Amino acid sequence: MHKSEYKRIEELENKHFWYRAMGEQxxxxxASFVRKKKVILDAGCGTxxxxxxxxxxxxxxxxxxxxxxxxxxxxxxxxxxxxxxxSELPFQDxxxxxxxxxxxxxxxxxxxxxxALKELYRVLxxxxxxLLRLPALEILxxxxxIVVETRHRYTTGEVxxxxxxxxxxxxxxxxxxxxxxxxxxIKRSLERxxxxxYFHSDSHPLPLLINEIFYLILNCENQLLKYISxxxxxxxxxxxxxxxx
Length: 245
What we know:
By secondary structure, the protein is α/β, with parallel strands linked by helices. It has helices at 3-12, 17-31, 49-54, 67-75, 113-123, 143-147, 156-165, 181-194, 208-225; strands at 38-43, 58-64, 80-83, 96-102, 124-135, 168-176, 235-242. The radius of gyration is 17 Å and the shape is globular.
């Protein structure tokens, strides 16, 4: 990912509807399971916005392979900021109560996502939880994927199989961002028509009213996700548990 993209994320992560709504979804998911302070790994922390939010649940280790991203994370005052790959983590076995891995394993630099999942499994304590999010559905591939170097977009079935192969028990899995999938599909179709003239990510400012409407839509969807799994969407979200045999 280009350095300018990290700067854009840093500027938008507390304003843009997607970062706000998806961040709240993560916090709500964790809050329903976490009852006391935990040792938490943010695997692929990016600019550290989510790591900072996770500190309410315990001690957070923010790990990323990109130095530009880590500089932004350090500026947020995070205590444990570490340069490392999610495929080769510098931690002992059974170290973390919770691992959060958000939009990381899809990246071109993660050449073997199953091996990376096995590494996340290794560092989790028995009965520890993995919260995973990945981009969904190849039909939604577009300019954004070029900019952020997407290797693959997933289905829920595929993610579930890979988690099980890596040792996890799948507690829950669903698509997310369902209600905005049709507008996104239209946007992707227009990108293909424009071709190489259109080349930037989805991380850019929106008019305030549109931004707030989209936020409210995703916030309503977050409430639905508490009770049902959605049949399609632009993301896959999954919760896995380490239950050694």
